[in-house]
Design a protein that fits this description.
The chain is about 80% helix and about 0% strand. By secondary structure, it is an all-alpha fold. The protein has one domain (about 45-200). The longest helix is centred in the first third of the chain and has 32 residues, at about 35-65. It is globular. The protein starts with a helix and ends in a 5-residue tail after the last helix. The relative contact order is 0.21.
Length: about 210
């Protein structure tokens, strides 16, 4: 991977994880708990994110192969998912492919919500997993995967810190700024989705190349 490709992967992962939007959901789901419990949930979510991202990165493509799913087909399907996510974020709505209000209500009744739904699917959702699998498929060399693993660990750690200090960050940033940033990320996600759709279609129909 070249430096621009590494930077592109980092930016794509940050956008898919949607830090401020995820932070807003985390605060909403934990607002009735104590700071200690909130931070305990943050640690649990961080560990879950780390396991999920690394498993997806190192074994996601092999899982697709076992299921008989080609990379062009997965890339095209991932593009559709991202397009829906971006459109939803652009309209300042919850993503229709990540979680629902019913999921949120069920989560509030659980003693532990760090793994589900916070880590999966709020932060590590279909978009993030698609990005990991597709990038790992484009750069399958061991050194590239090691670089991507390091990036995933760092991003997970940063996201975990944001969740750990969620209340303080929310008070500093403000709801209006979170909504503005979420809409901006939605537009970028839609642009990425169009590229994925085009690449997937060309892979499925080489005659279009």
């Amino acid at each position: 991977m070249t430096t621009p490709e590494i930077l592109q992967f980092i930016v794509a992962m940050i956008i898919m994880m949607n830090p401020l939007g995820s932070l807003s959901i985390f605060i909403d789901l934990t607002r009735k708990t104590s700071v200690i419990e909130q931070r305990k949930t943050a640690v649990e979510a961080t560990l879950a994110m780390l396991v999920i991202t690394l498993l997806t990165l190192w074994s996601g493509r092999e899982a697709l192969t076992l299921l008989g799913i080609t990379m062009p087909a997965f890339r095209f399907a991932g593009g559709i998912i991202l397009l829906l996510m971006g459109l939803s974020m652009l309209q300042s709505k919850e993503s229709p492919v990540s979680h629902t209000s019913a999921d949120d209500e069920a989560a509030k009744q659980r003693q532990s919500i760090g793994i589900v739904p916070i880590a999966l699917p709020v932060i590590i959702g279909p978009g993030t997993m698609s990005t990991l699998i597709i990038t790992a498929g484009d750069f399958p060399q061991l050194l590239n995967k090691l670089w991507m693993s390091i990036i995933c660990v760092l991003l997970t750690f940063i996201m975990g810190l944001m969740l750990y200090f969620a209340s303080a960050i929310a008070k500093t940033v403000g709801t209006s700024i979170i909504k503005v940033v979420t809409r901006m990320m939605g537009m970028i996600i839609m642009a990425i989705a169009v590229g994925m759709l085009a690449d997937g279609l060309i892979g499925l129909l080489p005659i279009l190349h």
